[in-house]
Amino acid sequence: MTSHVRDFAGYRGNPPHVTWPGNARVAVSFVVNLEEGAELAIADGDERNEKVYEAIEEVVGAPDPCMMTHFEYGPRAGYWRIMDVLSSRGLHATISSCGRAVERSPELVADAVARGHEISCHGYRWETHAGMEESRERAAIARTAEAIAAAAGRPPVGWHTRSAASVNTRRLLCEHGGFLYDSDAYNDDLPYVLTVGGAPHVVLPYSFDTNDMRFGPGGGFVFAEDFARYCADAFDRLWEEGAKVPKMMSIGLHLRFIGRPARIRGLEMFLDHIARKGRAWIARRDEIAHHWRSVAGLDPWAPAAARHPQAVAD
Description:
Layout: E1 26-34, H1 65-88, E2 94-97, H2 99-104, H3 106-115, E3 118-121, H4 134-152, E4 158-159, H5 169-176, E5 181-182, E6 192-196, E7 199-203, H6 224-241, E8 247-254, H7 264-277, E9 280-282, H8 285-295
Parallel strand pairs: 1-2, 1-8, 1-9, 2-3, 4-5, 5-7
Antiparallel strand pairs: 6-7
Helix pairs in contact: 4-5, 6-7
């Protein structure tokens, strides 16, 4: 098994002085998670029912219509509400998609592609990969990529594991080929580049705090204003710091959370705040990763003056 090398230093207080498009201070990445249909359900032949949601008791040993219909809300109603908000402002996001969810709702992927969104990988099942046997994980990566390529009409270039990757995930992604970046890190406010298998690989750190998952039990968000205020506070701080060096902000969205009628206003309020503030580049994660490769001097068209040393680890 591959060992994991921890890095507490990062850019060592000296991040690269790159420029975002439009001279933005903050690159803002909205990640819409498409997980519904990939969660555990005895009715689908799984070993147990999913138990991660709001205040619902776990049903053991029998199908759970309560849990299943809560997840069904996302594709039926939540997705369309979120898409309408983004489309009304001409914004594009990354749709982080589980392979089994894509197979069950290919029409959502087709719609997202038509709207200009990126479709990235979120595992085949909505599951952690920590401790997963290597051959099983390799197969899961391939199956996820195949499902998304079939539905989207193009292969995915991004990956994010639910909660925890294995010590092999990043290597297996690079061995599979075609992956530009992964988001299996939570350790910085900027992208960074690692050398994996002798080649450069972009890491776009993700965030669990600026995330609508905090509407769940004990998460701290109750009202739409809670989400909007917290994200606005984070954005404002990064915006101030971005006057000196650029910053990146990730906002995680879920169809069955922010897609609810009482919560969607929180997304609208935050988008209005960004618009008033200005100097933000709202971009898909593949766009951010391509840009970072360019300024890091990893692509042929990168100007030499923009190059900056990156963190390197095998």
